Amino acid sequence: MDVFLQQLINGITLGSIYGLIAIGYTMVFGIIGMVNFAHGDVFMVSAFIALIAFLILTTWLGISSIVLALLIVLIVAMLFTSLVNWVIERVAYRPLRGSFRLAPLISAIGMSIFLSNFVQVTQGPRNKSIPPMISGEFVLFTHNNYPVTLSYKQLIIWGVTAVLLLAFWYLVAKTKLGRAQRACEQDQKMAALVGVNVDRTIATTFVIAAALAAVAGTMYLMYYGVVTFSDGFVPGVKAFTAAVLGGIGSLPGAVIGGLLIGLIETMWSAYFSIDYKDVAAFSILAITLIFLPQGLFGRPDVEKV
Amino acid sequence: MTALANSAGENPRPHQALAHGRVDAMAALRDAGITAAIAFGLFLPLIGFQTTVNGENALILITRWPLLLAVVAAVGIGRLGYSVLLEPRLRQRAMRPIATTPSALRTFVGQWFVPFGIAFVAAYPALVLATVGFSRSVKWIDNFGIQILIYVMLGWGLNIVVGLAGLLDLGYVAFYAVGAYSYALLAKTLDLSFWVLLPISGILASFWGILLGFPVLRLRGDYLAIVTLAFGEIIRLVIINFTALTNGYAGIGGIPRPSFFGIPFNADDNGFAAVFGLPFSPVYRVIFLYYVILALALLTAFVTVRLRRLPVGRAWEALREDEIACRSLGINTTNTKLTAFAMGAMFAGFAGSFFATRQGFISPESFTFLESATILSIVVLGGMGSQVGVAIAAIVMIGGTEIMRDLDFLKKIFGQTFDPTQYRMLIFGFAMVLIMVWRPRGLISTRAPSVVLKERKSISADLVKEGHG
Q: What confidence tier does A298 reach under pLDDT thresholds 50, 70, 90?
């Protein structure tokens, strides 16, 4: 029971990070029907931007308040990552819109290779580790000398994820931008006819996706304290699994899928074999797509002749 | 904000840098300035700062302002050059009507390219020996010839699955791995020869192709791609973790090398060189391997060409164009898909066992997702379904990255610390994006019909419409 509870806490933390990345996949897929392969690498780039911002703040400017530093890092990472994804959309995806269906996928794979190698070349191939930003934990209870803990870091991740998801939900459900986005998702031509700027809406979608990935990247850096250039691929695929599991195109589905993947991964590591935890995630991806292609919350894909 | 929007060049707007072939200098400068400003924001964190460890093993930051400025200036100048030099031409080209048939020059080149290409490839080792001499030719035949031919063969094999049957496979490297490990394990335990194990590895790989093909029969498009990616990764992770059989990360070494009809390529008295009375040199083995992979690649191409004329080949292409129409015509889509997976996997298995015998050592490192992505990009960049296109794409992408390995003269320009090899994959990724944006349908996008009435005409890409299968 104690191990289970601890893994539950860890799993929700990991799942929050996956969920934030998964929203990026699901939004982009919903609006232009493309698997944005580079999204995992955008997440990795955001973690690097957060790392650099954190180092500037602490070692150069000498900001000692860790909460303030974290807040600034979060905002800086969101801004710069948004710019990165905005440019990626302009350069690599927009010229290919409405083109042959494999072209954007190959372009995205190329972008993914480019981003991870760009970071490797500019920042070096070694692991970048920083001393823990925040330490300390609540001991919830102790059972058989095994303390079940909830660390401050985990609490911050839960809190930030919850607040940002609420803000994001408000943006999509209640604002004009969100309405435009949903309109483009349903029918781009029709949306353009009623005066929605489709190009701008799609660009905004990429910006929002990147901002959420940047939150995930900052949280990832804070939680693990280490990041390297190849960290984009596996979290990216797992977040994509989460998006598929929740039903691609469905925003609550992405979050719940993320939490489920996080939980399955931590539970699998605790009770079965840590070596095969990625196999578990990939198997879930395959099994979901084969038996439940529309996911938990997605609409079934109606095929028209 | 408009600077990059214009680069898409699809919907002309009044304020654009260029109107009717004239170049508006002010607008071009403004665009360049905006692009440079965006580039500054883009590269500020990752190029402007570098994270390194200091003596106490703690992370510190170093600034690289000159490099950042150089990159930003290069981007701005590049954008200026684009709007002054390239854009007017692109605009003119867009004005031209869509060509329904390729031009006469293209038809001529198309007719003679294949025989000339095969002749050149067959004579390649002799040409290399004649130009760079005996000692340096190993590198050229091995790193360029064999390496490129392996990818040509893999590209042609995947072309059956992706190009002909239209099934997007991102886990193709799994079958390559199955072939390589089958050969390595069987050769080491049963001590059978390469020529016996080659078909066996192919059969085992195609068996895996069918096995992994079954569950994904209902999936299409991007979903199929992602599931095959998952399968590819699962096989790799199993190879890593199933150490009792595969030795995990450490890999399998000492894989038997092929022999020339029983004569080994070594320095012994009964080795190849001694038997034929030649001075010993590693070149002979490399040349032999070159012709083996050339024969295997040509076999792949030949089988594909012949299969396209059989009912199964036509069914593949029909499946690619429209699965629903295919089904309503009574084509068994299950069998059609599975044969495509099996054929593609078989050639990957052949290539895998060749890879194992050429390297003498295999490890999971050689079968990462990046390999699958590379092979798929070769197929798509070449123009799906076009064998010549795939071969050209393999030469450009693999040959290009291999050339990046020894560009030592760049050290003279950028200083001794400059290492061109680390930019290999960076340029590879960017080239993928650029080629896709430039030619979304690949380098050779014309289609050659497999059945013709009177004369053989190639069909221009502008008339090819692919179903969203």
A: confident
